[in-house]
Amino acid sequence: MSSGPAIILVRPQLSENIGTAARAMLNNGLTDLRLVAPKPDWLSDRAIAAASGADRVVLGAKIFDTTAEAVADLNRVWATTARNRFMVKPVDTPRTAAAAMLDLTAQGVKFGVLFGPERTGLENDDIVQADTVVTVPLNPDYSSLNLAQCVLLIAYEWYQAQGPELPERHMTKGAADIATKEKLEGFFQHLERELDECGFLRIADKRPVMVRNIRNLFQRAHLTGQEVQTLHGIVHELVTYRHRKGQGTT
Questions:
Q1: How does it assemble (predicted)?
Q2: Which segments in the chain show pLDDT lower than 70?
Q3: What is the rounded distance in angstroms from the CA atom of residue 18 to the CA atom of residue 148?
Q4: Which of 91, 118, 125, 147 has the fewest CB neighbours in a 10 Å radius?
Q5: pLDDT value at position 31?
Q6: Can you give the pLDDT at residue 43?
Q7: How many CB atoms are closer than 10 A to CB 136?
């Protein structure tokens, strides 16, 4: 993945929020963390604990006295805000911002995103450093986000804009775990035999369609060999239970 946007936390108030923001960054391949005027105890055990393995992002954070210094080497800057600041600036969503950032990456342009203090958000003097405002479209009656959530939304859209490979649709050990058609056919015959026996498939003219529907249902599941064996066991136990009931035993 390319380096992506610098994440700039302006006057963060709680060290654990720095840690959780770092965690959100690393989840999406971002490592350039910049802090503007953090509190003296920002690098505390709480920050490292909250980072939950993203220690290197926290420990590698760059410290600046002012927002202007933090963005000095960047060519483009976005500022996150949910409020109307009465400034004439373009407005992006996280998704449209990510698409614009991807275009800048191809041009070799450096860029970053500003995030304000947890209680108040960015001040207008911070936002004036930015080219574009980014606002998350949420429920207008309740659109409150904590710092890490906001960082995660921006970072996630950036990560997705690069088209990461999707994971396998099923979490199996490998193709060898998927049941063979022979094993599936054996299960289908077992199941259909018992369904005939109990009368479920008793309507002759509907039987072919019902059998196809049942088979298609299990085919869509991409069953593993172990799962087919489990299904055999389920059918067997149901039949055994029915026979015991028929004999009046418990």
A1: Homodimer.
A2: 1-2, 83-86, 164-176, 248-250
A3: 8
A4: 125
A5: 93
A6: 85
A7: 17
Q: Where are the alpha helices (DSSP H) in the chain?
A: 15-27, 45-51, 55-59, 67-70, 94-106, 124-127, 147-161, 181-198, 207-220, 225-246
Longest Cα–Cα distance in the chain: 85
The pLDDT, as a whole number, for residue 175 is 52
- According to DSSP, the β-strands at 76-80 and 132-134 are parallel
Task: Give the burial string for 118-135 (b: 16+ CB within 10 Å, else e).
Answer: beebbeeebbebbebbbb
C-alpha to C-alpha distance for 84 and 91, rounded to whole angstroms: 11
The per-residue pLDDT for 53 is 85
* pLDDT given for residue 22 in this prediction: 94
From CA 109, how far away is CA 127, in angstroms rounded? 20
Instruction: Domains for the chain: give ranges and CATH numbers.
Output: 6-161 (3.40.1280.10), 175-246 (1.10.8)
The H or E element that residue 64 is part of is: strand 62-64
Tokens, residue 50: 């909250």
CB 134 within 8 A of CB 80: yes
pLDDT, position 168: 56
Q: Say what the pTM is.
A: 0.69
